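Hi all, posting the design record for the shared folder.

TITLE: backbone redesign
STEP: 1 of 1
STRUCTURE INPUT:
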């Protein structure tokens, strides 16, 4: 329970950073649109991919902040309705965390693929 309260305290302190996350997301989107207008090339593909990766990480950080800011109380409840609600909350948060993990793995895979394509074009 101590870890949960520390996480909630940290999320409340990091709440101000949401503006920074929004700025990073807009910057990444602008970066991708700028190179989209430049025309097709390897640099265009890599920059667009990196902007999508950055947007994915911004989404991941946003979801983490939301998760730790609005965690329900994990104490055992008395009524069956509250127990059902608690189980639904736990399932929802687990689905969010697994989705973020899959998003992280997918972005790392795409980033490695883009860097491989860039290095093969630079070498060959």
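Okay, here is what came back for every position:
SEQUENCE:
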């Amino acid at each position: 329970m101590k870890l949960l309260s520390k996480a909630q305290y940290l999320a409340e302190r990091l709440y101000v950073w949401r503006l920074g996350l929004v700025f990073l997301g807009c910057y990444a989107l602008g970066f991708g649109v700028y190179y989209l207008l430049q025309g097709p090339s390897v640099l265009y593909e890599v920059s667009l991919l990196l902007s999508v990766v950055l947007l994915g990480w911004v989404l991941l950080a946003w979801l983490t902040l939301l998760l730790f800011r609005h965690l329900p109380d994990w104490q055992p409840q008395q009524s069956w309705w509250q127990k059902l609600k608690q189980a639904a909350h736990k399932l929802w948060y687990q689905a969010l965390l697994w989705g973020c993990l899959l998003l992280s793995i997918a972005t790392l895979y795409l980033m490695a693929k883009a860097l491989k394509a860039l290095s093969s074009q630079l070498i060959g």
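COMMENT: Residues 2-123 form one domain.
Let me know if anyone wants the other runs.
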